[in-house]
Amino acid sequence: MSAENLTQAIQDKRLFKCLKDINLNSYKYETILINPPSCGLDENTLQLATKYPSIIYISCNHNTLCHNLNILNKTHKIHQLALLDQFSYTNNIECGVLLQKKIVK
Fold first, then answer.
1. Contact 59/36 with Cβ under 8 angstroms?
2. Is 66 a catalytic residue?
């Protein structure tokens, strides 16, 4: 299921056959795992992600990762970062970021 569709399902904006027997509201989600295409996250999914205590963001495009992190850093802080060179002899690098919700004082 695409991130856009899952976002619509979680926000009760659209029903999907594949989720007809699953009550998404009965779950207490603590972490969201994001592995978007190279274009990054759409705005609705990005806003949904800010509501979770923990975000695991895997990215194959450091430019869109930076763009998305500019938004996510308003509500979360980077806890850990990993760079994975899965594409030897290219300029591409896989990034993994663990973000934790900022504590509001």
1. yes
2. no
